[in-house]
Every structure is written in structure tokens, then in C-alpha cells.
Design goal:
The complex is a heterodimer. By secondary structure, chain A is mainly alpha-helical. In chain A, 75% of the residues lie in helices and 3% in strands. In chain B, 72% of the residues lie in helices and 3% in strands. Chain B is globular. The chains are: A mainly alpha, B mainly alpha.
Chain lengths: 492, 649
């Protein structure tokens, strides 16, 4: 399969949106374009599995390379492994859902959809790039539109949030850039991941470069204590913005931490794994406890995201095959789940015009569909079997337990404790907003989800169930890639 | 081998009910959801019976031992080469016994609910939740992999949550459902860690492999697990104890029992199914499932289980004597009876005669399911009739509800251990097992038997005798429906027959710790003490509650502070409330939230503000005036020259 299609389709859609003449056209083109992307992503999954089933053992498939700057050894080098396939699939789901829930954006519709599609383009490009320079380029593409999305279509103290988010992510990017340049100069004048992987980088150099890359990408994925853009960013962003931010952007960071920092610099990963584990365990528990005290639904999900992506980082820090597989599963699972959560919160906000838990009650009565989806995604968040969160978290736990150090054991138990705290905050939020008597008379006249909202919710729910009920396919996709990373760490 | 399809359909039929009523119920199926669910469950019930018949009588035994059959084992999620979650179906004596219990009670409850829940707005939702629960519970009992059992364990937990909170616009129901979920979740955290420990050391998540490896003391798995210890206790004991913690939470054992009484907020048939007969005995089932590990490898943990069971049994019985909400009395009674099952396992050994406690425990689980479901359904009929849960609103109902009265009496006699009702036989075996291996527990159990008879007949006399019945002034004629239609009476009668006759099943023939037949134990001489105590309890209850009078108050006065403490459930809820509200919420949660916004984010903002401040200050250097630049240039040149000449040389 030609991977260029994956950047070609969103690019064409975005350009077509610019050329569209009215709102109906804009929305129609966006939806059609995003569905094409979804189809491409599914085709990619299918093609990848077919190749693997045919006995293809190479890690990277569908590679293609076009020289760009010969003098600097930069080329457009694309290819995907199992991780990238999973992430591309995730992206395509979130893009379609994001387009659907934005159906009623009235203000500057064209610009809104253009930026949304651009974000998707950045993510697809990021995941298929095998050249760090190009990868970095796509990473930045996915930052700038967010600044505008929050600044223009946001709510609350949106200028502050947009600035904070952009500056913190730019700070992270700066660290990544330095790390990349370090790799370039110390490992054979190349940005190419395959070349860098083959080069031998001295341990001393790894110890310097690893923190730069890991922390740089870590900012994107809410590495404690650099996570504070998350609550503000989410609370100000428009619904689709939040979905992209938590569903895709945070995964760019996790992907980078693992696929770039850990993969290219295994010695560094081993050296710093203790710190990663400490920071991620703190994020998991502390994020969960902080969530418990939040009063705004978006803050609840934002802090809970900090806690949940902590599992990804914990899995990376544990350095066992199962834990890394779990970390990757958690990225995919959390991506779908949190996108759906933000979508539902947006649907509730559109109707009640409030996100404060205390101002709602008994919504189940009038909004059965939205409430059911809220419940399901909440249950996914607290790790109910049959939904994706369970599969991912349990894989992280089992994998973490395979690392027999007492320190690792304690960190695993601490992280596991969050399953109780998560249950507390999810049930509190759901119990107050959905159950109980209707507290606001005006809420008795609310209307349940419209077709586009239902479609978005069902699409993302399908993703959650596909992972939760039959996790085998995702496991098969991710496990060999995790094994490859482990082989490098073991020095094979 | 049994037919895979037959067994797979047992859990899948209720699942189909859940999916159909869940998705199409609101709009298309509506009032048909009840019969749909009931018929599907009837299918499950018939298949379970046929499976049981085939297993016990057709395949029979090999070498005198019932074999464990695994008609399905499918790798669901492989973590590594060794560890994987398998979806399997396991047929052995206890799983078959549980199939019968679960499908019987569930069928009765489905049928009963046709009448009890009639006219309910979310009728189809109710039946879809019942289907989900039954599916999960059947999956749980058929599990052959420890992680598989955990999966279904969580699923029964969530179905219980959904059904307790069924009346979701009632704040007390919402609170109770949250409490039930969170308390059991806390216990499940222990279970999860226990699974991690045991599977790590045994190198397998499959029950059979795990048990085989962990029970041979010479195996490397056991050696390494015993060598690894934490706080002076071996990893194996930690693992086993943590797994039991999960079981204790689900089975409402002290001190994790606080959710069960509150769970009575759910519709009464649900209490009968989930919180009396099936889900709450999952903990007992779990211990029985892993019994060889407890008995052979970690006897200290098994002894702890015995004590937890005994303490729960007596505490719950004492509290039950003081409660006035009839469902709460039954809830504490359930906790007490599960305590019996639990300590029966705790005092049991593995194999042969020593395994009497194991057989007795399973036997009691079986008989208890029948008579306790009956008690709840009877209580449901009473509540349906008088529209109140409080004993003070009842009395003299025997004339108005003859069927309920008769069946309730049978159930009371059964639970009080009066021969020849079912409870007598199973409780005798439990007492006998305790008598032989742990006299202290035996005496506790004996005293508890007396209390059991007392509080059950307190309930019986209070509801059906005492003062003549006066309808509460509700204004409308609420009694036109009588006792409820045949759909409500039939389950009562059927369960009444089971409660009266189930004791005659030669249970040891079918279920024993090692699969070999165990002769039933019955000694007249041994039965004298418990039966006498039981009769004494009944007489005391009759004296106090047969007629309305002031004896109960006098008795309460005589016990003074102890009565009050028992009435307030020994303040255990308050202790929990203090820990969660004051410590976890206010101390930890609030601090974390404050720390994040003020310190962590404050630091980030400080970085931003400092940058702004510094740029504000230094921007004056870029003034655009040539003279000023020349001045800076000269000053810097002089300073640098001085630096090189005098300092660095």
C-alpha cells in the first residue's frame, strides 16, 4: 500500500474545504474526506496483516524513500510498523468523530474544518515518517493549528490556555530538536531512524541525548510535572479540539518517547528507567487524586488523562515486553476513550451550557443515549473488562510485575491502586450528573443526541469494544514491535 | 466429553437477552423483554440440568474420581509465552453445582419479576441487566483461568452496581450502588495483585496448571515463591491472602461487608438473585476453586479465612437481631451464613474425611441459595403488599398472604437448622467439621446458630403475627393485587419445595475436595446441641414477638450500650466514612489538587512571568540610539580587557 495516500488524502480534503462555497459543502467534504482516511487506515491494517500472514518478518513495511536535501542527508522516508498502523487507525477514528461532533460550529466554519484536517494530516505524517527531520516537521504541523483552535473557537480564558499550551509544547519541541541534532552529529550525519538504529552511539552520549528526547516528547504526553497545559488546554478547547488534543496529540508524545527515545537510545532508557517509573507512578496516583476534587467535567477528564497516560509511561519505564505492549495498548485505548469522553462532555455542554457537575443531575431521564455513552466510557476509564481500558491496563500490570525488583513491585502496586480512585471519581461524576433527581427544571426540555453525534459516539464505541472484546488483533500488531524494542534494550 | 455447544449456550443465552433487550428494548421489545429473558433463561436452566445429569450420571467417574473437563480453551490475550488470559469452559463438580444454583435462582427471579416489576418504566432495561448479570455469573463459575474469573468478577460487580442503582433517581440508591462498587473494587485491587503474584510464581494463569505447580512442594515454582518474602511472609502466602481479599469483598466478609446492607436499595428480586444466592457466594466459590493451594501450600492463610468467616458470622448475626428493615435483617443474615460457608472451608483439610468442611461449605452454599432466595422473594411479596420495608408497618399478614406465609415459614425453619429442612443438614456438616478441627470456631458457630434462629423468627413473627395488620393510610386501595399473580407465587412454592427437600441430596457423593465420594455425616447425638439452641432461639423470638408488647424494648434496655452499638452496626460505616471523607478526600485529594494548581502550575507560570519580566527589563538596551550602543560597546570592551588581563591571565 502506498503510504503517501495517508498524507495525500487529508491534504486534498483540507484544500477542497478551502475551495468550498458554503457550509454544507464544507461539512460534506470534510466528512467524506475523513471517511476516506478511515477507509485508508483500515485498508492499511488489512494490508499489514496480510503481509505478516504471508510470512513477512521485516519490522517496517511499505517503505519508500525520496531524497529531499541531499547535502544534509534528509529524505522523505516513509514506512510503518505495527505501532504506526495502530496509531494511524486511532487517528482516523478520532478525525471522523471530530468532524461529526463539530457539525454545529457556526463561527468561521471553513477555517475550523481546515485546521482540524490539518491536525489530522500532521498526525498521519508523523506516524509514517522514518526521518526525524520530516517527523519533526509533522509534529509542528500538529501544534500550530491547536493554538488557533483554542484561541479562536475556545471558551473561558482561552488566550491564556492557547499561549500556555503552545509555549509548553514548543518548549518540548525545542528539547526534541536539540536531541535530534545531537543524534545527527554523533551518529553518522543522518536523521534516518533506520540508519540511527544501526549506528553505535556511545553510552555517554546516550545519557545526554535520552533525557532531551524523552522529556521533549514527554511534554506532549503530559509527563509529570510538565503536564499542566493539559487541564487548561482541554478546558478551553472546543470539543473537537479536546478530542484531537487528548486522543491524538498526547499519543504523538508517547510514540516519540518509545519509538524514538527508547528505541534509538536503549542505554539511556535503562539508565533513566527508575526516574521514568517514579514520575509516571506519581502522575497516575496524583492525577487520580487530583481528579477526585475537580468540579468541571472537562477538568475531570483532563486530570484523568494525566493519570491514564501515566500508564503508558509506566509501561515504557518497566522495560519488559508485556509492559511495553501494554503501554502501546494504553495509548490506543486512551486515545479512543478520551476522545469519546470529550465528545460526550461536549454534547452535554451544548445542551446544558454548563460543565459543572454540581449544576446537573438526573440527565439520564432526558438524555438516555448520551448518558449511556457517558456511562460506558466511564466504565472503560475505570477498567471494566470488555472495554479497551481493561485490556491495556492489565497488560501494563502483568508486564510490570515481570520486572522482579522490589522497587518495581511497589510502583506497580501504587499504580494499581489508581483503579480504586478512578472508580471513585467516575462514579461520583456519573452519579451526580446522570443519576439522582433532575436538579434543574430547564433540563427537562433537553433533546437527546442528533444523528451526527450518535454516529460519532457509535464509531468510537466500536473502537473501544473492538479492543475490549477481542484484544488479540491489537496484541498481534503491537507485540512484535515491543519485542523489537526489548531486543535492543537487551543488546541483541 | 460433554457437548461444547450445550455448555457454551448456558451463558450465551442470557447474554443474548442482555444484548437484545439492551439495544432494542426501549423502542421495540418493551413489555416482551420480560418473557424474552425468562424463556432464554429457561433454556439455560434446562441445558444446565442436562449438563449436570450427564456429568454426574453419564460420564460418571474415572477411578472413583469426578474428572475436570475442559471443552473449550481459547487464548484471548497472550501477555507473554507463559501468561495468557484464556477464555475457557470448565466442567467439574463445583462448577456444575453452581450452574444449577445460578440458573435455578435466576429463572425464579426472572419469573417473579414479571409480576414484581410490572408497569415499571424501565422494564426492558431491568431485564437486560438481569441477563447481563446471569451471563457474567455463569461465566464466572465456568472460568478455568484466574484472569478469566477476574474478568467475570468485575462484570458481576458492574451488573450488581447497575441493578442496585436501578431506581437511579433515588439518591439513596445511587449512593448505595457507588458504595457497593467502590468497596468491592478496593477488594478487587487485592485480588488483582494476588493474581499477579501467584501467576508470576507459578508461571501460568490456568487454574489447573497453577494449582498443580503450587501444590507440589518440591517444584521450583513453590521454592522460589517461598524464598521470596515480604515483611517476613512468603510471596505465596501474600498472593493467596490477597486473592482471598477479593473473595472477602465480594462475599461481604468483615470488615469489607459494609456495602451489602446498603445494596438492599435495589429491587427486591435483584437482592434475592445477586445479594443472597449467587454473586455474594462468589468469594466462597473462589476459595473453593483454589482450595488445594490454600489447604496444601498456605495453611496459615486458610486458618485466617476460617477466622474471618467465623467473626463475620457472629457479628452479622448480632447486628441482624437489632435491625428493623426486613431486607437489612436478611442482608446481615446472608453475611452471617456466608461466614458459615467461609469458615467451613477454613477448617477443612484436603482429601478424604478431612475434606468434610469443603463438602459442607458447598452443600450449605447450595441449600442457602434456595432458602435465602425464597426469603428475599417472600420479603419482596410483603414489601409489595405493604409498601414499606419497616417491621413496624407489618404484623398479622398471615391472613392476607397465606402462600407467602407458608413458604416464608419453611425458609425460616430451614435457615434455623430445624430438621428435616435443608439448612439443618448442611449446617450440621459444617458444625461437625469445625468441631473436629477448630473447637473455638465450633463454639462461635454454635452460638451463632442460636442467634440465627432468634433473628429469623423475630422477623417471621414480626411480619406475620404480632399486631393485627393495619393498612398504612396511603389513601388508595393498594391491596387489590393481593399477594401478586401466579408468576410471583410459583417461584415461592418451587423454592419452598427446594428449601424443604434439598437436604436429602447425598451431597458428598457429588462434591468433595478431591473428587472422591464422601459419605454423608449425620449423628443424632451431635445434633442435639444445635437443634436445642435453635428451638430456644425460636421460643425466645415467639415470646418477644408473637404478640405486640414491650418485651423487645425491655430486652434492648437490658443490653444497654451493647444493643445500641449493634443497632448502629458497631460504627463500622462511620469509621469508613471518616477514612474516605476526611483522609482520602480532604487530606489527600484536596492537597493533590491544590498542589497541582498552585505549586506545579505556579512554577510553570513563574517561568513564563520571569521571562516576560526579564525581557521587559532588558528591552531598554535595544533603544536604537547609536550613542548608547557605543557606550555599551566601550564599557564591555574595557570590562572584557580587564577580565583577560587581571583575572584569567
Amino acid at each position: 500500500m502506498n503510504l503517501l495516500l495517508l498524507i495525500g488524502a487529508p491534504l486534498l480534503t483540507a484544500l477542497a474545504v478551502l475551495a468550498a462555497r458554503n457550509k454544507a459543502q464544507i461539512k460534506g467534504i470534510s466528512l467524506a474526506g475523513s471517511l476516506v482516511q478511515l477507509g485508508l487506515a483500515l485498508a492499511l491494517l488489512f494490508a499489514y496483516r496480510q503481509e505478516k500472514a504471508a510470512g513477512q518478518t521485516a519490522q517496517l513495511l511499505f517503505e519508500q524513500q525520496y531524497p529531499l536535501f541531499r547535502s544534509l542527508n534528509i529524505s522523505l522516508h516513509f514506512g510503518v510498523d505495527g505501532i504506526a498502523v495502530a496509531m494511524i487507525l486511532l487517528t482516523s477514528f478520532v478525525v471522523v468523530a471530530g468532524v461529526l461532533v463539530s457539525w454545529n460550529v457556526e463561527k468561521m466554519t471553513k477555517e475550523f474544518y481546515f485546521l482540524l484536517l490539518l491536525l489530522g494530516l500532521g498526525a498521519y505524517g508523523f506516524f509514517i515518517s522514518l526521518d526525524l527531520f520530516i517527523l519533526f516537521f509533522f509534529l509542528e504541523i500538529s501544534v500550530i493549528p491547536k493554538y488557533l483552535l483554542i484561541g479562536i473557537w475556545g471558551s473561558g480564558k482561552k488566550e491564556y490556555s492557547a499561549n500556555k499550551l503552545a509555549l509548553m509544547l514548543m518548549g518540548g519541541s525545542a528539547l526534541i530538536l536539540v536531541g535530534m541534532l545531537g543524534l545527527y552529529f554523533y551518529a553518522g550525519n543522518s536523521f534516518d531512524i533506520t540508519t540511527l538504529a544501526a549506528a553505535s552511539i556511545s553510552r555517554e552520549m546516550q545519557l545526554i541525548l535520552f533525557p532531551l528526547l524523552f522529556v521533549g516528547f514527554g511534554v506532549f504526553t503530559a509527563l509529570f510535572p510538565l503536564h499542566t497545559w493539559v487541564p487548561d488546554g482541554h478546558s478551553s478547547a472546543p470539543t473537537a479540539g479536546s478530542m484531537f488534543l487528548a486522543g491524538i496529540s498526547m499519543k504523538l508524545g508517547g510514540y516519540g518517547c518509545l519509538r524514538i527515545a527508547t528505541y534509538l537510545l536503549p542505554e539511556g532508557a535503562k539508565e533513566y528507567s527508575t526516574i521514568i517509573i517514579i514520575l509516571s507512578s506519581i502522575a497516575i496516583l496524583y492525577g487520580a487524586f487530583a481528579t477526585m476534587m475537580q468540579k468541571d467535567l472537562k477538568y475531570i477528564n483532563a486530570y484523568s488523562s494525566v493519570s491514564h497516560v501515566g500508564f503508558s509511561l509506566l509501561g515504557i519505564g518497566m522495560l519488559t515486553q508485556a509492559a511495553i505492549t501494554g503501554a502501546l495498548m494504553q495509548m490506543v485505548s486512551h486515545g479512543v476513550m478520551t476522545a469519546l469522553f470529550f465528545a460526550v462532555i461536549g454534547m452535554i455542554y451544548d445542551r446544558t451550557h454548563t460543565r459543572m457537575v454540581a449544576e446537573m443531575g438526573g440527565l439520564m431521564k432526558k438524555l438516555p443515549f448520551i448518558s449511556t455513552v457517558f456511562f460506558l466510557v466511564g466504565l472503560c476509564s475505570l477498567g471494566l473488562p470488555g472495554l479497551s481500558g481493561f485490556v491495556a491496563e492489565m497488560t501494563v500490570f502483568v508486564g510490570s510485575w515481570e520486572n522482579p525488583g522490589t522497587f518495581h513491585r511497589i510502583a506497580t502496586i501504587a499504580a494499581a491502586m489508581s483503579i480504586v480512585v478512578t472508580a471513585v471519581y467516575i462514579l461520583r461524576a456519573a452519579g451526580k450528573t446522570l443519576m439522582g433527581p433532575v436538579t434543574n427544571e430547564e433540563h427537562l426540555s433537553l433533546r437527546d443526541a442528533t444523528w451526527n453525534e450518535k454516529l460519532a459516539a457509535i464509531l468510537l464505541l466500536a473502537g473501544i469494544l473492538a479492543i475490549g472484546l477481542a484484544p488479540g488483533w491489537l496484541n498481534e500488531l503491537l507485540q512484535p514491535a515491543a519485542q523489537e524494542i526489548m531486543n535492543r534494550i537487551a543488546g541483541k | 466429553m460433554p457437548n461444547l455447544l450445550t455448555i457454551a449456550l448456558i451463558p450465551l443465552l442470557p447474554l443474548a437477552g442482555f444484548v437484545l433487550s439492551g439495544i432494542f428494548g426501549r423502542r421495540y421489545i418493551r413489555q416482551h423483554a420480560g418473557w424474552l429473558g425468562t424463556l432464554l433463561l429457561l433454556g439455560s436452566f434446562v441445558l444446565s440440568l442436562s449438563t449436570a445429569y450427564d456429568y454426574f450420571f453419564v460420564y460418571g467417574k474415572t477411578d472413583g474420581v469426578y474428572q475436570t473437563l475442559v471443552p473449550l480453551q481459547h487464548t484471548w490475550l497472550a501477555f507473554s509465552d507463559k501468561l495468557s488470559i484464556d477464555m475457557s469452559l470448565v466442567i467439574d463438580p463445583i462448577s456444575v453445582m453452581m450452574l444449577i444454583v445460578v440458573t435455578t435462582v435466576s429463572l425464579m427471579v426472572h419469573l417473579y419479576s414479571l409480576g414484581y416489576m410490572k408497569g415499571e418504566e424501565r422494564y426492558s432495561t431491568y431485564y437486560s441487566f438481569l441477563g447481563l448479570f446471569t451471563f457474567s455469573m455463569l461465566g464466572l463459575v465456568l472460568s478455568g483461568n484466574i484472569f478469566q474469573i477476574y474478568i467475570f468478577w468485575e462484570l458481576v460487580g458492574v451488573s450488581s452496581f447497575l441493578l442496585i442503582g436501578f431506581y437511579y433517581d433515588k439518591p439513596s440508591a445511587v449512593a448505595a450502588s457507588k458504595k457497593a462498587f467502590i468497596v468491592t473494587r478496593f477488594a478487587d485491587l487485592g485480588f488483582l495483585i494476588g493474581i499477579l503474584v501467584l501467576s508470576y510464581y507459578s508461571g501460568s494463569m490456568d487454574f489447573q496448571t497453577m494449582i498443580a505447580r503450587l501444590t507440589s512442594p518440591e517444584s521450583n515454582e513453590v521454592k522460589s515463591a517461598v524464598a521470596a518474602n515480604f515483611l517476613g511472609v512468603s510471596a505465596l502466602s501474600w498472593g493467596a491472602a490477597l486473592v482471598f481479599m477479593g473473595g472477602a469483598g465480594k462475599s461481604a466478609m468483615f470488615p469489607l461487608h459494609i456495602w451489602l446492607p446498603d445494596a438492599m436499595e435495589g429491587p427486591t428480586p435483584v437482592s434475592a438473585l445477586i445479594h443472597a444466592a449467587t454473586m455474594v457466594v462468589a468469594g466462597v466459590y473462589l476459595v473453593a476453586r483454589m482450595f488445594p493451594v490454600f489447604a496444601l501450600t498456605t495453611p496459615a492463610v486458610l486458618e485466617m479465612i476460617g477466622w474471618v468467616g467465623a467473626v463475620s458470622a457472629v457479628i452479622a448475626a448480632v447486628i441482624a437481631c437489632t435491625q428493623t428493615d426486613i431486607k437489612r435483617v436478611l442482608a446481615y443474615s446472608t453475611m452471617s451464613q456466608i461466614g458459615f460457608m467461609m469458615f467451613a472451608l477454613g477448617v477443612s483439610g484436603y482429601g478424604g474425611e478431612a475434606g468434610l468442611g469443603y463438602t459442607a461449605s458447598m452443600f450449605h452454599l447450595f441449600t442457602h441459595a434456595m432458602f435465602k432466595a425464597l426469603l428475599f422473594l417472600g420479603a419482596g411479596a410483603v414489601i409489595h403488599y405493604v409498601h414499606s420495608n419497616e417491621m413496624k408497618d407489618m404484623g398479622g399478614l398471615r391472613k392476607y398472604m397465606p402462600v407467602t406465609h407458608a413458604t416464608f415459614l419453611v425458609a425460616c425453619l430451614a435457615i434455623a437448622g430445624i430438621p428435616p429442612f435443608a439448612g439443618f443438614f448442611s449446617k450440621e456438616e459444617i458444625l461437625l467439621a469445625a468441631y473436629h478441627s477448630n473447637p473455638a470456631i465450633y463454639y462461635i458457630a454454635l452460638a451463632t446458630s442460636g442467634l440465627t434462629a432468634f433473628y429469623m423468627f423475630r422477623l417471621y413473627f414480626g411480619i406475620f403475627w404480632n399486631k393485627p395488620y393495619q393498612s398504612a393510610a396511603t389513601g388508595h386501595d393498594s391491596h387489590s393485587h393481593g399477594e401478586g399473580g401466579w408468576v410471583m407465587m410459583l417461584p415461592l412454592v418451587l423454592l419452598g419445595l427446594a428449601a424443604a427437600g434439598a437436604g436429602f441430596i447425598p451431597f458428598g457423593e457429588f462434591v468433595s475436595s478431591d473428587g472422591k465420594a464422601l459419605a454423608s455425616h449425620f449423628h443424632i447425638a451431635f445434633s442435639v446441641a444445635p437443634v436445642t439452641l435453635g428451638l430456644a432461639g425460636i421460643l425466645l423470638a415467639a415470646w418477644m414477638y408473637y404478640r405486640s408488647g414491650n418485651q423487645p424494648d425491655k430486652m434492648a434496655m437490658a443490653f444497654g450500650g451493647f444493643y445500641k452499638a449493634a443497632y448502629r452496626k458497631f460504627y463500622i460505616d462511620e469509621i469508613y466514612l471518616f477514612v474516605t471523607k476526611k483522609v482520602l478526600f480532604n487530606l489527600v485529594g484536596r492537597t493533590a489538587a491544590w498542589f497541582d494548581r498552585t505549586i506545579v502550575d505556579g512554577f510553570i507560570n513563574l517561568t513564563g512571568n520571569t521571562t516576560l519580566l526579564v525581557s521587559e527589563r532588558i528591552k531598554k538596551f535595544q533603544s536604537g540610539k547609536v550613542q548608547q550602543y557605543a557606550l555599551f560597546f566601550l564599557t564591555a570592551a574595557v570590562l572584557l580587557a580587564a577580565l583577560f588581563i587581571y583575572v584569567l591571565k
